[in-house]
Amino acid sequence: TVDLSAKGVEFGTLTVRGDGSLDVSQVEGVSEDFVIRPFQFKGIASTLRNFITNALNFHFSMQPKETLERGIIPNDNPNGTLVDDIDFEMLEGDVSAIAAFLAANRPPMQDMHGLEEASVIRGGEVFENVGCATCHVPTLKINDSRVTIIDPRMITEMQRKMEEERPEFVSIRSKMRPSYIALTMPELASELLPTVVQYNWMKNRDSFADAVSDSRVLAGDRPPGVTVDLNTDFLPDEALPRLPRGTDGSIDVPLYSDLRRHRMGDNLADTIPEATDVAGIMVDRPLFVTRPLWGVADTAPWLHDGRATTLRDAILFHEGPGSEANDSIIAFRALPEVDQDALIDFLFSLRARPMSHSAEPGVIHRQGWVLR
Questions:
Q1: At what angle do helices 48-60 and 92-103 cross, to 10 degrees?
Q2: Who contacts 336 (Cβ-Cβ below 8 Å, separation ≥6)?
Q3: pLDDT band at 173 (very low <50, low <70, confident <90, very high)
Q4: Helices (H), 303-367
Q5: Is 3 helix (H, G, I), strand (E, B) or coil?
Q6: Interval 308-363: pLDDT, tens
Q7: Helices 337-348 and 117-129: crossing angle, nearest 10°?
Q8: Alpha carbon of 203 to those of 160, 197, 207, 246: distances in Å?
Q9: Whether the Cβ atoms of residue 54 and residue 46 lie closer than 8 Å to each other
Q10: 18, 89, 300, 306: which has the fewest Cβ within 10 Å?
Q11: Residues 288 and 262 sit within 8 Å (Cβ to Cβ)
Q12: How many angstroms separate the CA atoms of 372 and 363, rounded?
């Protein structure tokens, strides 16, 4: 039995039995394939690309070519019989461009303008004292600021080639780690390398030598696609400024989240479980990923269904039968009113960052001045 943790966040324990089978009953806050899915309230998308392709189809009725080709969604008009129909409404490059744009959005900031500084500082202390920071972890460190928007075409080509040569092929991950097969669904003709494989790819490229024969895929230290350093100053004005980089190149991200799923009780539970981006892996009704709080002051209404019209309501709605946050809410209710107000002021200081002069001329910002 081993403890599971990442960046100081605990995810329960994993037990390997004597016969080699895995007991995942004590794994907490993450799906049984151990992939952290940071996107959407329930934590159902493991990559920004998966989040975008699902949103394009579900919210905008624009069907991405890559998901149509995988058979994830049916093509409602495969023959293009309508006069105004567009074949392949969203190409792979379109999705990559959206992903690069979203990934490079400028980070939020702490802005005390219009607030009493002493109250904001006190509120940060209260935030820690009542236990909010246990789940809304103030910072998480990333060691590598580069992000790769993977080109699915080369991955698809590579996997199809391997399927033809080796019919027993299921996925690169299950080929590398046979013990994972029981935990993962078949990923035939997947347009993406699974997240776990991407991680192993960068850690030990040699382990892929017998699993991947395409030299183009093995050429660099990143999967094929567009790689952007999210902490470079060579980004458009609307993406600046970036977070400060440490002397070792790492970045402390003031996310205020542990990216872990927590049981939020009966009062907040969804009506049905929700599917993730891997077939067969579901998220139970009362489970939600800790919502990042950076920029929270500018994201009203709050909670997954928008039921909270004030930040105070958003806090109190955490309470309910079976909620992991009950102790913190009891502690919040017991606070003097001045401390409750201070905590709210602290949350209101976590703002979206205004654009720079050159990026957004002529806009009145919170500070009250006009850019010309």
A1: 110
A2: none
A3: very low
A4: 311-316, 326-333, 337-348
A5: strand
A6: 999 999 999 999 999 999 999 999 999 999 999 999 999 999 998 876 655 555 44
A7: 100
A8: 25, 10, 9, 22
A9: no
A10: 18
A11: yes
A12: 8
